[in-house]
Structures are given as structure tokens and as C-alpha cells.
Fold:
Amino acid sequence: MSEVPEGLHYTRDHEWAKVDGEVATVGITDHAQGELTEFVYVQLPKKGSKVEKGDVLAIVESVKNTADVYAPVSGEVIEVNSPLDDDPSIINKHPYTDGWLARINMSKPEQLEGLMDPAAYRQHIGE
Structure:
């Protein structure tokens, strides 16, 4: 059974967003990392880049597959989790803490309303 923490927003594509003021910290869910298995590479966005909701934010590569990670909200990337460059397996070990991918200064915080709460996400993944 996948971990689905309270207090986060979730997408149908298995991204999560933790909001602090105007900043959303974004990562992939425990369910997604479990499906993809061991990560071997991550291509993070560039700091300062602008993203629109639904744009490819990052690319993760595992021993099984390569997957796009989509921006759950629009805004500017203000920080990336550079330790993942050296050790992408951090995502597998700590998807909701040390395994975050990027922080986005949201330009349209109202987009959060279109995301799922933990109960809806659990239903989405069939748990």
C-alpha cells in the first residue's frame, strides 16, 4: 500500500505539491516511485525557468522506464533539488521529503483547486 500523506495536493499523473505561501514544492508520489522502481537518472528543470500547468517539469529514468513529471501548477522554478543529480535513488527512499524535485513560485495559485486531496488520490490509485 502506498503512502499518501495528508496536507498535499495530488495530480492524476502522480505528482504531489506541498504549498507554503506562494511556493509549491513538487515531487512524485510513493505510488509512482513504486511502479517505476529504482531511479538511475533525473533531469531537473533549470532554476528560473517558467512552467505552465501540465508542462514537462522533469524527466525521471528508472531501471524499468523513463517518465515525464508534469508541473501541477504554473509559475517560475525558484529551486531544484540538486542532490538528486548525484543520487536519484533519494526519490525511492524519501519521495515526500528529501526526494522533492523542484520548488515553483506559483503564478496561478487557484490551479491548486483542480488537484486531488489525499482521499481522492487514494481512490484514484485504487487503495
Summary: The domain at 9-108 is CATH 2.40.50.100 (OB fold (Dihydrolipoamide Acetyltransferase, E2P)). The mean pLDDT is 97. The radius of gyration is 13 Å.
